[in-house]
Amino acid sequence: MHGYFYGSILDGLMDTVAAQGARVVAIQAREAGFFKAMADEKFSSQVAWDHLDALVVAVTTTDYTYLRDFSASGKPVITLYAAPTGLDCPTVVPDNASGISAAVDHLVGHGHSDIVFAGRRPANGDDEIRYAAFCAAMQAHGLVAPEPVVVPWTTEERYDGAVAVRRLRERDRMPTAVVACTDATAMAVIEALTEDGLDVPEDVAVVGFDDIAAAAEYRPPLTSVSQSFNLAGVTAGSLAMRALRGEHVETGLHAIPVTFVVRESCGCRGGTDDDVTDRGSLETVSLPFIDQLGAALYGDEELPSAQHPGLRLAVQRLVTLFAETVRANDVGPADRSDLDTAEKAAADALRRAVATSPYPVNALVALRGLAEAVAHHLAPGDWRAATAVLQCAADVATRALRFYQQHDSAVVLNQHVDVQRRHYRISTDLVRRNGSNPRTLTWLADTGVRTASLALWNEVGELRLVGVFPGDENGRELDEPCDVRSFPALLSAADELDPRELTIVLPVDFDGNEHGFMSLTGAFDVMGEAVFERVNHWAVLLSVALEQDRALERLRVSEERYALAAEAANDGMSDWDLSTGTVFYSARWKALLGYADDELDSTPDEWLDRIHPADRGTFDRALDHLVSGIEQSLEIEYRLRTSNGSYRWMTTNVLSVCGPDGRAIRLVGSMTDVTERKELEDRLRNDAHYDPLTGLPNRALFLERLERTIVRTRRDPEYMFAVVFMDLDGFKVVNDSLGHQVGDELLIEVAHRLSAGLRAGDTVSRFGGDEFVLLLDDVSEVATLPDVVRRLLTEISVPVVLTEGTRAVSAAAGIAVSASGYTSADEYLRDADTAMYRAKAHGPGSVVMFDGAMHARAVARLQLESALDQGIALEQFELYYQPIVHLDTRRIVGLEALIRWNHPERGLVPPNDFLPVAEATGQTRQIGQWTIVQACRQIAEWLDTVPDFSDVTVSVNLSNRQFWDPELMPTLLSVLKRYDVPASSLIFEVTEGVIMHNQDVAVSFLRQLRDEGVEFQIDDFGTGHSSLSALHELPVSALKIDRSFIQRMKTSSRSRELVGLMITMGGRFGLTVIAEGVETEDEATALAELGCPLVQGYLFSRPVPAPEATRLLLAQADEAVPAPLDVVR
């Protein structure tokens, strides 16, 4: 939005609309800074739209949606130099076709037929139109337009004509003439041709397009097609005003005329004497210049009437002088006395004209313009004449202003200096600021800007009005919401603005940083490039100042955040300048050591000399690596002496700042007191390796020591050790009955006795609960190990005085020795554990040495446990049913459900082979639940299919774990409900030992089940330890005499009497008596004689699968019961 091109457009546009009472708002569509041609990013902001009645736009600077949306509001859109795609609107363009046609006609008139078009890459719309016009003009002369050549150019307006010349050289012959799409392209081709040894126009004639300012002064002067950018602005303004008045304006192209300007690059030469004398009067040049010179000398001030004659005289003498200079140039060297006289007269007249002017230096620019106009009028295209006239203008100006300077130099010299000083102050104010806020726009004072406003984006993307000029006399910043379409708000005061004033809206964006918009209103010289460069410069500096504010704010927030973080983290800060040998220690750094802020010097020794001697070497090595540049950071823990002489643990983090040689020049660090953390780590480390109750090594530490011992055996085959696994007997009873506190006392005493009974090299550890494991080091005689361990067990068994009285405890122990040659600690623990369980089976105080057979049994047991898990998961179990019959009638009154395991490899496995293992591992819980479910399901089926089955019961055995399982009651009730089975159909069998384990709780539970209708029977009666009083209290319905008593009746009269007593006692207690294991008729007869009502055994039936039991029940229902012996066979 500056310079000759945009300035001329704006000048014409402003003249046109001002005459009709309107004014112009110029919106810059590029970020501030250097202008970049052909920029990819298009302007799309709707800034100032609420104030605009029409839009005149260079279409390449905006995108289609910008134009479409403005046009959709019903307001006219006029575009310049390129028609937008997809939008019908008036577009002002130069008459490219006639200009190119005139160029081709002129070259053909010179006799050229081999003419090439030189385009640009990248090309714009004008380039393409001009090439099409070139082809049409060539065709009109019966010539074929050859392929064009292209000149690459960059956004910095740099052209590489050598590329085009190389392409011309590749042809069969060089062309004789070139028509270039622009003057800049033509000049690049001329330069490249000259460097290639060709002469322009002797070898190749060249014509350009645009007639830029440099064309006339180029060597040779460039023949070109002149277009008026001012007229383009006038045309666009006229179209816009017509549309606003409601007149119909045709869409499409509106061409402005162009002029073919002949100079020398086409082959033409300068004019003759006759041409000079025949070019008409110079009044058309001199008359307008009188006003121009007056405006230059007096600006906005009213021209004093007394100065009018002086101005006319000065202009008249100047025009005469310049005309004589042209004629002298045409006729060659001559007597210069007449020219000197004319020059002195012109200088004298000029001196008097500027005598009262406040801006005499402006005469320089005006005088140059008059000289160019006279030269162009009298000798168009004659660069030698133009040069002579310009030199003459410089000479006369020097005479006039030198004379003027001698009389009043202050006015002349200070004018320019004052302007420069003002803009220098503005620039420095924006950069240096001196405490001022650039947002308030107070820095615009003395700039010629009458009003201004500034709106910036905030952090959430809202535009806020932050400053206006002139504004608050105190320079306070605003903060008001501002819609981008209504910015700048000062435009609403249209009645206060001169239509000749221009409002410029600039994006305050630079180097990718988008801040907002600034508007400037004033009487700007749109033709002066310096004006727009200056305001762009302000926008750049303002953007930099705002970005600096952002950076400072971010820095402030960062510093505040860092300070708060450092304070919250209790970090002490240090900054070591290695070049000066001084260290800054923060107040917190000193406080960590117990010092006040003014108590320590700024020397490194205050730090380094306090490091614990044991840590100093490690610290110095790490510091050397940091200083030498080997490392860039350091994190280290060490002890530092405090003010009271004690040491505290510190963690220091240091970052280095390196110089050009890679060595550190500065070390910046933080220090944190981690003493409490270190002490906690020590406690955790101790807890990780030692039992918190007894203080003995725990499992982890024991395994570490055992692993080291195993490694020693590899180095020394003669070395032996032993692992002893101990488990206390009866500890659970003490813990449960007397409480955990008493149990802990007992464990502590046992740990003390074991530790006291071992050598210094041995290890005693507690694995948890009541398990103690010993590592006996350097065993010389394996045979003596059992005696050593028994001695320890004897020590343990001595009664212990506890809070709740004196208690004795025993233990069993298993021993594994290193002779086995294992390589892992777990293998030794496994063997010692296996041996310990064998010892517990032998009784309290037993000691067992591990042997291979134990391992084999242990492996077999593990395999069985694994197989049981799989069996449970795959439901490989099956219930068999053994009838319980009435001895007199031999009719079935009940069935006992007995579980069998259908092992896929071993076949049918009896319960005695797997239930003990399942009971020890807890697997009986899942097996027992499955048994209850299957038994109830079968009962439900029999109730549906077997007549009178409601008189028959099914009994299920409960193991110890299952009886005490808290889920037994809810599981049972849920299954009974699921299969709709009456509780009276199901009976549970338990042994005496299960009940007597905790008689009171057992009795309570049995009563709960009886209340639900479930009966209990005591299985294997006579083998347990129940008493008569206990039996009398138990809510059970029957006793089952163990088969061992039945089998001994034939050989032992005492056994027969004992069975009789059991039957009698049961009858006296109201209990049904069932004899188990009846295998012979003799046993049945004896039992009948003793009055036993119910029996069960192989004599009547073996346990049979459910289908076989169903057959027996159905046969009995038909009263066709076969003999029991036939059934079991």
TrEMBL record:
Q: Give all residue intervals belonging to the PAS domain.
A: 558-630
The UniProt record lists the EAL domain at 861-1117
Q: Return the InterPro entries for the record.
A: Biofilm_reg_signaling (IPR052155), EAL_dom (IPR001633), EAL_sf (IPR035919), GGDEF_dom (IPR000160), LacI/GalR-like_sensor (IPR046335), Nucleotide_cyclase (IPR029787), PAC (IPR001610), PAS (IPR000014)
Span of domain GGDEF: 719-852
- Molecular function in Gene Ontology: DNA binding
PAC domain sequence ranges:
634-686
Per UniProt, which keywords does this protein have? DNA-binding, Transcription, Transcription regulation
Q: Which SUPFAM superfamilies match?
A: EAL domain-like, Nucleotide cyclase, Periplasmic binding protein-like I, PYP-like sensor domain (PAS domain)
Name the Pfam families on file.
Answer: EAL, GGDEF, PAS_3, Peripla_BP_3
Q: Which NCBIfam families does this one have?
A: GGDEF, sensory_box
The name of this protein is Diguanylate cyclase
> Organism source for this protein?
Cellulomonas persica
Q: What lineage does the source organism belong to?
A: Bacteria, Bacillati, Actinomycetota, Actinomycetes, Micrococcales
